[in-house]
Design goal:
Mean pLDDT: 87
Low-confidence stretches: 2-13
Strand order of the largest sheet: 3-12-15-14-13-16
Length: 336
């Protein structure tokens, strides 16, 4: 009864079937596996005060982008400014005294050469001049130290980046080491993936690496395959550096990478539409002498819109039916 039913269906089909074909090609099948990783900012700094004092001005807020060298806040420096002015005045006073001492010593040096004054008087003017010179050096060093302290009253950004956190307000009293803000460099983003050792060894500086973040793909470069792994999972960290982009990312966000698990060279490739099911088996129809010939196949894998096949009856250059094959029966005449 079953064969009779098939025979009736076959008789009801048109003698000529209109189809679309495509030739079997030789290609390469790459089987890949996806891994998840975590984004982290490589350059981030918790900025802190190097001196104590009250905040008088604040030039940033959370979310602001700042450039290297930008002033972020100002600490009260009135007393320090007064000390700097006093030291500068003392330096001027000593410079005048030293100039006069040098002139006096020059005169006594000439008199001493003529033996017109005693050695004691000569030594007195000499040591007075040397004492003033050392005093001037001391004051100049003190002024330099005060200016360094003054520079620390203004906190500057150490690199370009975004202010992720702000910990202070205008009017607060800061102690030395008080935390002020968290600064993040958006151009140095690392991604760490934990991979089996078999995958770690396949990645090198020559590998074309791309990662997927929020359904978008971005280029990356290899930083290092770290030697310290996870004993429980037997996986090892692979660290990549995201190539700078205008996109904004978040610390701790998920990224995905697809790495090649294995590859098959010189396999037979046909469009996915060419493979259909007949009697529970995967088959394709090829055209031989203007008739359809059903060929059983084994699917090796998929590559975008292609499928890799294995079959002793299929060869490169065979015309495989891609459209209309669902209506075809073996040995049916084909119209093209």
């Amino acid at each position: 009864t079953y064969m009779k039913y098939l025979f009736i269906i076959f008789l009801s089909l048109p003698l000529l079937a209109s189809v679309v074909t495509q030739k079997v090609e030789k290609g390469r099948l790459s089987q890949k596996q996806n891994f998840n990783g975590t984004l982290s900012f490589n350059e981030k700094s918790r900025l802190a005060s190097e001196t104590e004092g009250k905040i008088t001005k604040l030039y940033f807020d959370e979310g602001d982008y700042v450039k290297k060298g930008d002033i972020l806040l100002q600490i009260d420096a009135l007393i320090l400014d007064a000390n700097i002015n006093a030291t500068q005045a003392s330096i001027k006073e000593v410079e005048f005294a030293l100039e006069r001492a040098r002139l006096d010593f020059k005169r006594y040096e000439a008199l001493f050469a003529k033996e017109s004054v005693s050695k004691q008087k000569y030594d007195e003017f000499y040591f007075q001049m040397m004492q003033l010179e050392q005093h001037l050096v001391s004051l100049q060093s003190s002024l330099q130290a005060q200016k360094i302290q003054k520079s620390k009253k203004s906190l500057r950004a150490p690199f370009n980046g975004y202010i992720s956190e702000r910990s202070v307000q205008v009017g607060e009293w800061l102690k030395e080491g008080s935390e002020i803000a968290l600064l993040i460099n958006p151009d140095k983003i690392d991604i760490t993936f934990y991979l089996p050792s078999s995958y770690i060894n396949t990645v090198s500086n020559k590998t074309d690496l791309h990662v997927t973040i929020n359904n978008k793909t971005y280029p990356a470069k290899l930083i290092a395959a770290l030697l310290s792994g996870d004993e429980k999972t037997r996986s090892f960290p692979l660290k990549l550096r995201l190539i700078p982009t205008k996109e904004k990312f978040f610390d701790g966000a998920q990224a995905q990478i697809s790495l090649e698990k294995s590859s098959h060279e010189d396999v037979l490739m046909v469009p996915r539409d060419a493979v259909i099911k007949r009697f529970g088996n995967d088959v394709v129809f090829i055209i031989k002498e203007e008739k359809a010939q059903m060929v059983p196949v084994e699917i090796i894998g998929f590559e975008t819109d292609k499928v890799a096949l294995s079959s002793p009856q299929l060869h490169v250059g065979d015309e495989v039916i891609t459209k209309g094959n669902e209506r075809i029966f073996p040995n049916q005449e084909i119209k093209r």
